[in-house]
Automatic annotation (TrEMBL), chain A:
Stretches assigned to the PTS EIIB type-2 domain: 7-97
Pfam families membership: PTS_IIB
Single Gene Ontology MF annotation: protein-N(PI)-phosphohistidine-sugar phosphotransferase activity
Keyword Methyltransferase in annotation: no
Stored SUPFAM superfamilies: PTS system IIB component-like
Keyword Cell membrane: no
Gene Ontology biological process terms, A to Z: phosphoenolpyruvate-dependent sugar phosphotransferase system
Lineage per the UniProt record: Bacteria, Bacillati, Bacillota, Clostridia, Thermoanaerobacterales
Species: Caldanaerobacter subterraneus
Keyword field: Sugar transport, Transferase, Transport
Name of the protein described by the UniProt record: PTS sugar transporter subunit IIB
Gene3D superfamilies attached to this UniProt entry: 3.40.50.2300
UniProtKB/TrEMBL annotation, chain B:
InterPro entries with a match to the protein in the record: EIIC-GAT, PTS_EIIC_2, PTS_sugar-sp_permease
Keyword field contains Cell membrane: yes
Name of the protein in question: PTS EIIC type-2 domain-containing protein
PROSITE patterns found in the cross-reference section: PTS_EIIC_TYPE_2
Alphabetical UniProt keywords: Cell membrane, Membrane, Phosphotransferase system, Sugar transport, Transmembrane, Transmembrane helix, Transport
Transmembrane feature ranges: 6-27, 39-59, 79-104, 124-157, 177-196, 216-237, 243-262, 289-321, 327-344, 351-369
């Protein structure tokens, strides 16, 4: 087992509750399957500025204008169910980095 | 029938978990996961109840003191959408809203009346809310259920109608937004936007999104809004320094905690929501359809954010100066993006126009929210949410100020 620093993911949506909870649950489930431990901060898109500093990368279901220098992944497919696997794979790869 | 009545009378924290458990089983969920999900929903209700108590017990007396000292009659507390959603789901109509919403959607898809597959089960609460108000006004559960079904149908039509505009403006192919709150403002925004076209000078004004987002950024942080409002209300209520600071922190706490509690509800709802999504997509695949999602996916757009930020101080000002308004804006100051998210594409992203239209609908909305406050409070009390008796009434902007909800309520009242 390669020792990895525990990654912090910022999951943002319009409410910080609705779609981001769905995404958070799916990331946690996918990470658990891979035996990965992650930290997730859920927030509103207008709060990203305040939390971005603590995050390794950003996952969002909404339109992101400024990702404050962090990599961002659009997780809308996790909500629509179309292209879900692809996005989860991308997120897992990012956690493993 | 008496078994159904018995379950409905158990109270939301017991009734809803039972219904969710059964519904999850019907949709093909494993019993273990269904049980966990049902229990989680019950826990969410308990949590929301605690935080509403914190809000009303702190803000209620402050609002009363402010009425006495300042003569500003803002004694109806805006509990915000998290509380409104919980109250709606906890109502008797709420118990049936998921099957009803799905049924309306399936019938309309089968008869090709809609192209939208509404997989956003969470936001079925808007339909439950309308239904709950109708039931409270008419005393009839049946009329409440009919109202919820009508609301669900109208919102699907609005989603279809606005789909192209939303897809083009926000760059969301294949998606529509059957959102009970956001979509309700489109039929108002379109004529208002046409009216603005005809007014010289005003029709040329543009506002700079970046500047607004920088200057008004603070209004996008709910905990800061909570703190500031708490402190200001404490001062207006003539509290001592200790009281003022305590109210500030308590209100910041409510802004953070209430949505957190709703998140627990959401978590409980996910397995059902996923099962329903799979069911609907399997049935209607191959046809051209839109996937109906929460308008939350679009509120990140800079023009929507900028519009909503400016509307926060405008809402507070309107609440103070509008004669006949009794609503003290609080919980839903963080919900304004949802009010404007489908207005912004109507104005083609013109922030100035969106603010103008937003100001009008919020002004009218405050009257509507004042008007429904007694019914709102009654529904909340029946759903077993705790209130200090007598003194305080509650309402909200989302959906207490929702024009579509109000129109359906007024029409159903005639029967």
């Amino acid at each position: 087992m390669v020792s990895m620093r525990k990654k912090t993911i910022l999951v943002a949506c319009g409410t910080g509750i609705a779609t981001s909870t769905v995404v958070t649950e799916k990331i946690l489930e996918a990470a658990k399957k891979e035996n990965l431990d992650v930290n997730i901060i859920q927030c509103k898109v207008s709060e990203i500025k305040s939390y971005a500093e603590d995050a390794d990368f950003i996952v969002t279901t909404t339109i992101l204008k400024d990702s404050f220098g962090k990599k961002s992944i659009n997780a809308l497919p996790l909500i629509t169910g179309i292209g879900e696997e692809q996005v989860l794979k991308e997120i897992i790869e990012e956690i493993k980095k | 029938m008496s078994i159904i009545k018995y379950i409905l009378d158990l109270g939301a924290t017991v009734m809803l978990p039972i219904i969710i458990f059964l519904l999850a089983l019907i949709l093909g969920e494993k019993p273990g996961r269904a049980f966990r999900s049902a229990l989680t929903i019950g826990i969410g209700f308990v949590g929301i109840n605690l935080v509403i108590g914190l809000l009303v017990n702190n803000l209620g007396p402050a609002a009363q003191a402010m009425v006495e000292h300042m003569g500003v009659h803002l004694n109806v507390i805006d509990v915000g959408w998290p509380a409104s959603a919980a109250i709606a789901f906890a109502s008797k109509v709420g118990a049936f809203v998921i099957p009803i919403g799905l049924l309306v959607n399936i019938i309309m898809l089968a008869t090709r009346l809609t192209k939208t597959v509404n997989v956003d089960l969470w936001n079925y609460w808007h339909f439950a809310f309308t239904g709950a108000l109708v039931t409270a006004a008419t005393g009839s559960l049946t009329w409440g259920l009919v109202a919820a079904a009508i609301n669900a149908a109208i919102v699907l039509l609005l989603a279809d109608w606005t789909a192209k505009m939303v897809q083009d403006f926000y760059g969301l192919p294949g998606i529509s937004l059957p959102h009970g709150f956001s979509a309700a403002y489109v039929p108002i925004a379109i004529p208002l936007n046409k009216l603005i076209d005809k007014i010289p000078v005003i029709n040329k004004i543009e506002a700079d999104t970046d500047t607004i987002n920088k200057r008004f950024g603070i209004f996008g942080e709910p905990i800061v809004i909570g703190l500031i409002l708490g402190v200001v209300l404490g001062i207006l209520a003539k509290y001592d320094v200790k009281g003022i600071l305590n109210l500030g922190i308590s209100m910041a706490a409510v802004m953070l905690l209430l949505p957190r509690m709703v998140r627990i509800l959401m978590e409980g709802l996910i397995p059902i929501s996923e099962a329903a999504k799979a069911f609907m997509q399997k049935r209607f695949q191959g046809r051209e359809f839109y996937i109906g999602l929460d308008s939350a996916i679009a509120v990140g757009h800079p023009a929507a954010i900028a519009t909503a930020l400016v509307l926060v101080p405008i809402t507070i000002l309107l609440a103070i100066i509008l004669p006949g308004n009794h609503v003290l804006p609080f919980g839903d100051l963080a919900t304004i993006p949802f009010m404007v998210v489908m207005v912004v594409p109507v104005t083609k992203g013109n922030v100035f126009r969106s603010i103008l239209i937003g100001t009008i609908v919020i002004g009218v909305g405050l009257w509507i929210a004042t008007n429904v406050a007694p019914l709102f409070t009654q529904v909340a009390a029946e759903a077993a949410f705790k209130f200090p008796t007598g003194a305080t009434e509650i309402s909200s902007i989302c959906d207490g100020a929702n024009p579509l909800t109000w129109v359906i309520l007024q029409i159903m009242r005639l029967f």
